DNA sequence: GCGACAG
DNA sequence: ATCTTGTCGC
């Protein structure tokens, strides 16, 4: 895929924060996804082992979730985990994986936040600026914001609010399981992001594309030189 | 100043 | 995220 808005990754934490403040102004998080036009969905995930990061992007049909493409990329892990700066840890290896991608997914689902982030630019938003396609953040735990109790039934949801601003939704993708925290990355809005994630979760708490990416990234095997 | 804190 | 056995439940 062609990537836009590329920049150096060799930044200190304070430089990274300054870059986020600059990039956040370009994130579009009130744009409905045309759900009827979605044909391909990608799941994105990164796993780390021994200072090495492996990224996996799995593209599946929608609906149906038939495998279309899997790409892997490996790199030394360049940046420690710092809450709020995840994209600077996982971005470099993801950049390499995106460049290998042959198909053109209509939407990308990320393991991590979109605008549900202290500076409203989590990894799904940041990568969305490169991809110039709709992206959605799918967090398993909360980074910031609060939400009220929601029903136990699959499909139940409650707004995620931070500093008086609605930044996403706590969404029950599986009955009686902990909710997922869904937020627009880029070129998406909260209602359609939540709807798509729900439709991508037919059986498990994790959306199917992310589950597949997680499995693909989890098992390290040397890539063909 | 004191917690909280995606993966 | 990662380190890890058995175990409860559909």
Automatic annotation (TrEMBL):
<dbReference type="GO" id="GO:0005737">
    <property type="term" value="C:cytoplasm"/>
</dbReference>
<feature type="site" description="Interaction with target DNA">
    <location>
        <position position="81"/>
    </location>
</feature>
<keyword id="KW-0227">DNA damage</keyword>
<dbReference type="GO" id="GO:0003727">
    <property type="term" value="F:single-stranded RNA binding"/>
</dbReference>
<keyword id="KW-0479">Metal-binding</keyword>
<keyword id="KW-0378">Hydrolase</keyword>
<keyword id="KW-0540">Nuclease</keyword>
<protein>
    <recommendedName>
        <fullName>Endonuclease V</fullName>
        <ecNumber>3.1.21.7</ecNumber>
    </recommendedName>
</protein>
<dbReference type="GO" id="GO:0000287">
    <property type="term" value="F:magnesium ion binding"/>
</dbReference>
<dbReference type="InterPro" id="IPR007581">
    <property type="entry name" value="Endonuclease-V"/>
</dbReference>
<comment type="similarity">
    <text>Belongs to the endonuclease V family.</text>
</comment>
<keyword id="KW-0963">Cytoplasm</keyword>
<feature type="binding site">
    <location>
        <position position="111"/>
    </location>
    <ligand>
        <name>Mg(2+)</name>
    </ligand>
</feature>
<dbReference type="Pfam" id="PF04493">
    <property type="entry name" value="Endonuclease_5"/>
</dbReference>
<comment type="function">
    <text>DNA repair enzyme involved in the repair of deaminated bases. Selectively cleaves double-stranded DNA at the second phosphodiester bond 3' to a deoxyinosine leaving behind the intact lesion on the nicked DNA.</text>
</comment>
<keyword id="KW-0460">Magnesium</keyword>
<dbReference type="GO" id="GO:0043737">
    <property type="term" value="F:deoxyribonuclease V activity"/>
</dbReference>
<keyword id="KW-0255">Endonuclease</keyword>
<feature type="binding site">
    <location>
        <position position="45"/>
    </location>
    <ligand>
        <name>Mg(2+)</name>
    </ligand>
</feature>
<dbReference type="GO" id="GO:0016891">
    <property type="term" value="F:RNA endonuclease activity producing 5'-phosphomonoesters, hydrolytic mechanism"/>
</dbReference>
<dbReference type="GO" id="GO:0006281">
    <property type="term" value="P:DNA repair"/>
</dbReference>
<keyword id="KW-0234">DNA repair</keyword>
């Amino acid at each position: 895929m062609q990537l836009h808005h590329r920049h150096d990754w060799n930044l200190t934490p304070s430089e990274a924060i300054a870059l986020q403040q600059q990039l956040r102004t370009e994130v579009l998080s009130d744009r409905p996804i045309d759900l009827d036009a979605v044909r391909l969905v990608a799941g994105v995930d990164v796993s780390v082992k021994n200072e090495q990061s492996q990224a996996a992007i799995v593209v599946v049909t929608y609906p149906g979730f038939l495998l279309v493409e899997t790409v892997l990329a490996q790199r030394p892990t360049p940046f420690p985990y710092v809450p709020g700066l995840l994209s600077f840890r996982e971005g470099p290896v993801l950049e390499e994986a995106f460049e290998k991608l042959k198909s053109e997914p209509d939407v990308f689902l990320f393991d991590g936040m979109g605008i549900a982030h202290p500076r409203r630019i989590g990894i799904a938003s940041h990568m969305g600026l490169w991809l110039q396609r709709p992206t959605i953040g799918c967090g398993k735990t909360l980074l910031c914001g609060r939400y009220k109790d929601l029903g136990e039934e699959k499909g139940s949801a409650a707004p995620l609010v931070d500093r008086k601003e609605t930044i996403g939704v706590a969404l029950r993708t599986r009955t009686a399981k902990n909710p997922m925290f869904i937020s627009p990355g880029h070129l998406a809005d909260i209602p359609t992001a939540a709807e798509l994630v729900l439709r991508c979760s037919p059986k498990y708490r994790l959306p199917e594309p992310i589950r597949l990416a997680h499995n693909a990234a989890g098992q390290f095997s040397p890539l063909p030189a």
